Amino acid sequence: MARFNLKSFAQPEILKKIKSANLIPLLEPFRMFLKMKEFALPSCADQEIDATALGAILAQPDEDMPGDLVEALHLIGSLGSDERFDELLDMATANQIETDGEVTALDLATQIWLKNPEALERKEHEEFFQKRKSFESFRAANPEVVIAIDDLPVDLSALEESLDAYFLAKKRGVGCRVTRKDSAGEVRFLIEHGQPCKREPSRKGPRSTSTFFRPEKTDVVIYDVVHNELRINASAFADVREYRALFGRHIFGGEDRFVFSEKYTLDPLKKDGRAALNCRDIPGMDKVDLREVEYSWGGAFEHFEIHRAEGLFHALALIQRDIEKEPHIRKAVFRIKLEGEKKSRTVTIKAGNKSGYNRGEEAMVIEDSLRARGFVLTEETAHDAQADAALAGD
Question: Helix, strand or coil for residue 92?
Answer without folding.
Answer: helix
